[in-house]
């Protein structure tokens, strides 16, 4: 999530200038669907986070953790990657922002039941082969009136169509396996799974009362994203 895989950032890694450049690339890549007046404000409800307990699953390089903490949230951020945890902690120290950052597994969240008002996850849950366990864990740690928002890839989006034509047909992926296998290898690696609307909504409806998805269609060469908003299913009485 450092956005430097094609064009290396020349500054010292995890320095203030390095984070500034990584953030610029991240915000620029998502600008067409994620931002109105401030970075990612179309997706993250910053104006509702002050004084709220927030969990970010998969903090990456920590930009969203920083933004939500600056909005007044009490943020807990986890990531499976040691590098991401170290990067986010370094970012917060450099920026003078407070949040709790720890290594953690989304399939076994290290938090109590009903601990959070809001859960945010950008491009993370599709890497797990046990996504239902993650959604169940999100539901468990949310308060009864809590909300979660996640971003995953859209199987009907532009990136998938390009991969179908270029990698599956023209490059012969059709002879080596299914289109889903081609997608896994041609986008963000074999573990990045894509969703259609009904599939994603059905996954969340097993654990949440109110579920909706919103599609974002940025212009080329940006990838199409799908976000899902969900409110926790109320705990039955007794």
Q: Average pLDDT value?
A: 83
CATH superfamily of the largest domain: Vaccinia Virus protein VP39
Terminal CA distance reads: 44 Å
**CATH class type of the largest domain:** Alpha Beta
The portion of residues assigned to helices is 25-40%
- Radius of gyration over C-alpha positions, nearest whole angstrom: 18 Å
The residue ranges in which pLDDT falls below 50 over 5 or more consecutive positions are 218-226, 234-238
Global shape:
globular
Report the portion of residues in β strands.
Answer: 15-25%
User: What string, H for helix and E for strand, traces the elements in order?
Assistant: HHEHEHEEHEHHEHEE
CATH architecture identity of the largest domain: 3-Layer(aba) Sandwich
Helix tally equals 8
- The name CATH uses for the topology of the largest domain is Rossmann fold
Describe the sheet with the most strands: 8 strands, mixed
Number of strands: 8
Oligomer: single chain
* Count of folded domains: 2
Class of secondary structure makeup: alpha/beta
3D structure, described in words:
The protein has 238 residues and is an alpha/beta fold. The protein has helices spanning 16-29, 31-34, 63-70, 82-95, 131-141, 158-170, 179-186, 197-205; strands at residues 53-57, 74-79, 100-103, 116-122, 142-154, 194-195, 208-216, 225-232. It has 2 domains: 16-153 and 196-232, Rossmann fold (3-Layer(aba) Sandwich); 157-190, no CATH class. Strands 1, 2, 3, 4, 5, 6, 7 and 8 form an 8-stranded mixed sheet that branches. Strand 2 (74-79), helix 4 (82-95) and strand 3 form a beta-alpha-beta unit. The longest helix is centred in the N-terminal third of the chain and has 14 residues, at 16-29. The chain starts with 15 loop residues before the first helix and ends in a 6-residue tail after the last strand. Residues 218-226 and 234-238 have low confidence and may be disordered.
